[in-house]
Specification:
about 400 residues; alpha/beta; Spore Coat Polysaccharide Biosynthesis Protein SpsA, Chain A; seven-stranded mixed sheet; 14 helices; binds guanosine-5'-diphosphate-alpha-D-mannose; binds manganese (II) ion
Length: about 400
């Protein structure tokens, strides 16, 4: 508006092309460096986004992962084990799960199973009870809650019900199957009294090389952190927890507290929360992959937002080497995805400002990389972390009940 108004006020006989040129000189040179600067900053942010995790991975792999465990592992150690299976409408899986556990090579007199069902409407609890009657050589108890308050509430009542001599509670999802020897393999880590929680490594269904790159990134980092001290990210698919630790420090019970929060809390309390390599579980993806991954991202985010403060508020917090791991992982989960987001927004802005080629280059390069599967897996994980944080801010309701 102002531009055309000024131009119109120019006398007819003056040299108008020159004036137009002067206007362009005034506008374009001042815009281009700004756009270039924005693209420049975006590229720097992009580097930070990718290089910090890459450097951390390399460091953790060479310094921590390749070292031996600093905990003694006693293959002959046989503690009393309670397997805890939370269920909600799992008629398809419950019997197969119980059969799978009954096939474990672990002394029956050291094994109890607790199914904790939250008012399933599909007879899950009755199926579990019938299975127990038909298989008296495995000690199975079924706790039936009258209302569904979520997995966390269910686990808490199962923990209350652990046998008085229980030494390790193995919490496991109903839809995963153990490879033979899983319980025995988990048991040996508890010979060392500093070990609080043990989680399994993740096995993926396909052995496509690209997928194994991402799997290795995830698993190697988790195990490396565990060798150093503890890893703050665990999977509820399989978590073996020292019963004494449950009885002394307990688990965090804030809404949304889950597998990773259990692990981090125990690590803050001075226990080792580890992921091991000799136990791997393959989990079938059920239902919508999108909502499952989003919910997991929300749980991981809540862990990093709340667990350290929570541990302090409960007076269990002790400063250890875990704090360094926690700080880096907090950054990777809470900050790093937003750095990528900022970089993308800045490139978009520079295009709007008319930077043309300068903005297009990182855009084309970044999009071309999407052809690579591990890169795609990484980018989608970043998106889940971004959406997860936003969703936590808006509503955490679904996270609370599951
Ligand atoms: N008792 C009880 N009550 N059990 C429940 C409830 C509930 O309200 N909700 C879910 N469960 C049980 C399921 O029956 C299953 O055995 C287990 O909890 C996991 O449920 P899934 O439906 O398979 O959850 P997921 O695979 O999407 O979630 C995964 O990530 C979560 C972390 O965000 C699992 O590994 C979960 O264990 C983990 O908590
Ligand atoms: Mn599942």
């Amino acid at each position: 508006m102002r531009l055309s108004g000024n131009l119109r006020s120019v006398p007819i006989n003056s040299n108008s092309p020159n004036i137009v040129l002067r206007w362009r000189d005034a506008l374009v040179p001042s815009l281009t460096p700004t756009a270039e600067l924005i693209v420049g900053v975006a590229v720097v942010l992009g580097f930070v986004h990718f290089f910090v995790p890459a450097i951390y991975y390399e460091y953790a792999k060479t310094r921590w992962y390749r070292k031996a465990w600093t905990i003694t592992i006693d293959e002959s150690y046989q503690p009393r084990i309670s397997v805890v299976i939370p269920t909600y409408n799992e008629r398809e899986f419950i019997e197969g799960k119980l059969t799978n556990i009954s096939e474990e090579d672990f002394p029956r007199n050291l094994l109890e199973v607790i199914v904790v069902d939250s008012a399933s409407t599909d007879n899950t609890a009755a199926l579990a009870e019938a299975w127990a009657r038909d298989n008296p050589n495995l000690f199975v108890r079924v706790i039936s809650e009258s209302v569904r308050k979520g997995k966390l509430t269910a686990l808490l009542s199962a923990f209350e019900a652990l046998g008085p001599l229980s030494e390790v509670a193995i919490v496991t999802d109903v839809d995963v199957r153990f490879q033979k020897g899983t319980i025995r393999k988990a048991a040996k880590y508890f010979a060392n009294s500093s070990v609080g929680i043990v989680t399994a490594s993740l096995a993926y269904s396909s052995d496509v090389p690209a997928e194994s790159i991402y799997r290795d990134y995830y698993n190697v980092l988790r195990v490396a952190e565990s060798r150093k001290h503890s890893t703050p990210i665990h999977s509820g698919v399989f978590q073996a927890i020292r019963t004494r630790a449950l009885r002394t420090v307990g688990v965090p019970v804030f809404p949304g507290s889950d597998d990773s929060a259990f692990a981090s809390y125990m690590a803050f309390a001075g226990y080792r929360s580890i992921q091991v390599e000799d136990i791997a579980v393959k989990e079938p993806m059920r239902g919508s992959q999108f909502s499952t991954k989003l919910r997991r991202a929300q749980h991981v985010i809540l862990n990093f937002l709340l667990t350290k403060k929570y541990a302090r508020s409960k007076n269990v917090y002790r400063r250890t080497e875990f704090d360094t791991i926690w700080t880096i992982e907090s950054w990777l989960v809470l900050v790093n995805p937003w750095i990528l987001m900022a970089a993308l927004l800045m490139v978009a802005l520079s295009l709007l400002l008319g930077s043309g080629e300068v903005g297009i280059i990182p855009l084309v390069f970044g999009s071309a990389l999407l052809l690579l599967k591990p890169y795609r897996a990484w980018m989608s994980q970043q998106l889940y972390l971004i959406m997860g944080l936003l969703r936590n801010l808006i509503t955490a309701k679904e996270v609370w009940t599951k």
